[in-house]
């Protein structure tokens, strides 16, 4: 039997590569004769650079120290692909796990802008890919733009402090210091289809996950609305709400294109070809919920599997919504481990256990999923 193991990272717990290895280990315990292919993936969030590096053996890593989401320095870097494409991963510079504690109003994306500026300054860079996902902030990309030379001032001409909480005081945006994009342009890989504003937007849909109270959400929404009034562009564009609105900021100010990160990265990594002759695919993420099929990696894997007629087994830290077809079986690590803390304490153990349990759902020899 040909099995493809193609998970996303389990955010804050296990990178996609390790998750795939653990699930495959558990599977092989039960079905050692199966042909198991590991294909760790990403959707523009955490781990995107690692997946793209694996797909391009000549890629070169450029380390850098940048400003983290809470102002402390963090060690990050960007990736230069052989064709001159520079890849910047927001999660590596401005991701939620990098903050000492959630700061919904004060966290920013300055470090992402610093990485982008470093990539832009390299003479080998011909095109920029910015992977957007996993952010700690809801600043509309203001921090990143500031690091690239944009001035954001209040009514008295003072530069705004970091964070989305200050954007409601925004009075002017000066783009004169923003350098031109590289010859091949800027493309943002987004992991959601959310617009910038409204019930499904960056503040109201995602800021509570970053520690925002109801009052914080109202303030952040007002700030993003003010940013959109001054920058223009398309705040209603799918993906504009990615990474706390960073998708919107880079598109409106710099002309960046917003594309589905999951589809782009999966294509580069070879998912469609891998599923063309597969009998089963195992995919997973930290939490499967109603957002998982709206631009996230797992949702894209389900789409590709459905088109290829391949059944899916889902493995998630928590299964919080009914998985749609073609999912025929689902393993919840929290349930397997007897609680969230236990699952988080030994994620590889429980991923392997989920792989074994998934394998046992099949008939012993060449049977269909049960």
Automatic annotation (TrEMBL):
Stored InterPro entries: Glyc_kinase_flavodox-like_fold, Glycerate_kinase, Glycerate_kinase_RE-like, Glycerate_kinase_sf
Biological process annotations from GO: organic acid phosphorylation
Q: Which UniProt keywords apply?
A: Kinase, Transferase
Question: From what organism does this protein derive?
Answer: Micromonospora citrea
Query: Which Gene3D superfamilies is this protein grouped with?
Result: Glycerate kinase, domain 1 (3.40.50.10350), Glycerate kinase, domain 2 (3.90.1510.10)
Could you tell me what this protein is called? Glycerate kinase
Annotated Gene Ontology MF terms?
Answer: glycerate kinase activity
Query: Which Pfam families does the UniProt entry name for this protein?
Result: Gly_kinase
Family, similarity comment: Belongs to the glycerate kinase type-1 family.
Which NCBIfam families does the protein's record reference?
glycerate kinase (TIGR00045)
Highest taxon in the source lineage: Bacteria
